[in-house]
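Re: [ENG-882] Designed sequences occasionally contain unexpected residues at chain ends

Forwarding the minimal case from QA. Structure tokens:
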């Protein structure tokens, strides 16, 4: 959840409304975002630390989205979880 800021990058707003869908991280063309996977936990983060450990844009990178990356969709085995649920 972001708010527009004139002549500046958007700012995070209404963090409690986030549903951890990762779409903002996936569509950020410069790998500047990190979505914490714990949707029910408010997480305090430090941008410099996230960058240092390589978490900014890491979901996007692992999915294979972005310039000169290869999609990992064919290797995705998530559908196996659905088979086990039946
Ligand atoms: S993870 Fe999804 S719901 Fe959360 S801020 Fe990004 S786009 Fe919005």
């Amino acid at each position: 959840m972001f708010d527009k800021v004139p002549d500046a990058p958007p700012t995070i707003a209404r963090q409690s409304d986030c549903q951890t869908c990762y779409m903002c991280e996936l569509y950020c063309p410069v790998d500047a975002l990190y979505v914490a996977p714990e949707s029910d936990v408010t997480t305090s983060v430090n941008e410099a630390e996230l960058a240092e450990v390589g978490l900014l844009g890491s979901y996007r990178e692992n999915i294979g989205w972005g310039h000169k990356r290869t999609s990992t969709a064919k290797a995705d085995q998530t559908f196996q979880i659905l088979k086990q649920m039946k």
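QA comment: On inspection the terminal residues look reasonable. The two ends are 34 Å apart (CA to CA). Proposing we downgrade this to a documentation issue.
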